[in-house]
Amino acid sequence: MEYTKAPPHESSYVDEAWRVKEAIREREGYLQQTYEFFHDSYENNTAHLHLDDGSVAAFSVVRNDGYLLFLGVDPEHRGEGLGRELVERALSNHSKVSCHTRESNENALEFYRHLGFKREREVESYYRNGETAYFLVKRTEPSLRNKLSGVLKNED
Predict the structure, then answer these.
(1) Of 25, 90, 91, 106, which alpha carbon lies 20 to 30 A from 114's?
(2) What gap in Å lies between CA 76 and CA 84, rounded to an integer?
(3) Taking the model in full, what pTM does it have?
(4) Which residues contact 156 (CB under 8 A, 6 or more apart)?
């Protein structure tokens, strides 16, 4: 398995990543975005990819603020740690990584919970079909609120 990165404005592997996204959509009903939205997101942000003999096995698309626009692992490569590694790469470049996931996507919710993400809020009717999303966050540094709280607790 080979890792590669596509910085903003480089669309190498976009069609291969789309193929993986579509395989997930067809199998599970998630990742329903249009090609135009997917392509624009991929091209204007940083993509991280795992390649298996030149084909995309897993990918993530991450905004500059650490928001995960997409995370997809080819169903044939699930359980190999590729998704975890892609999230860890995002965390190594950002003090906070966040994403939305459908309340019905139990596999994704368990995956992010296992990695230490916390649910910060619910967003009703986030998806086109009216489904609620959970906004999930993982911080690598304490939040400003936690820093201030710690300082105040140490005051005597």
Answers:
(1) 25
(2) 16
(3) 0.85
(4) none
Distance CA 113, CA 55 (A): 29
End-to-end CA distance of the chain: 54
Task: Give the whole-angstrom CA distance, residue 57 versus residue 3.
Answer: 10
What is the CB neighbour count within 10 angstroms for residue 138? 18
At 54-68, the pLDDT tens digits run: 999 999 999 999 999
Nearest to 48 by CA among 35, 36, 33, 66: 66
Question: Which tokens go with 64?
Answer: 């500059």
- Give me the residue label for tokens 């698309």: 61
| Domain 2-153, CATH | 3.40.630.30
Closest by CA to 43, choosing from 75, 12, 77, is: 12
DSSP 66: S
- Ordered by start, the domain boundaries in the chain are 2-153
CA contacts within 13 A on the Cβ side of 38: 21
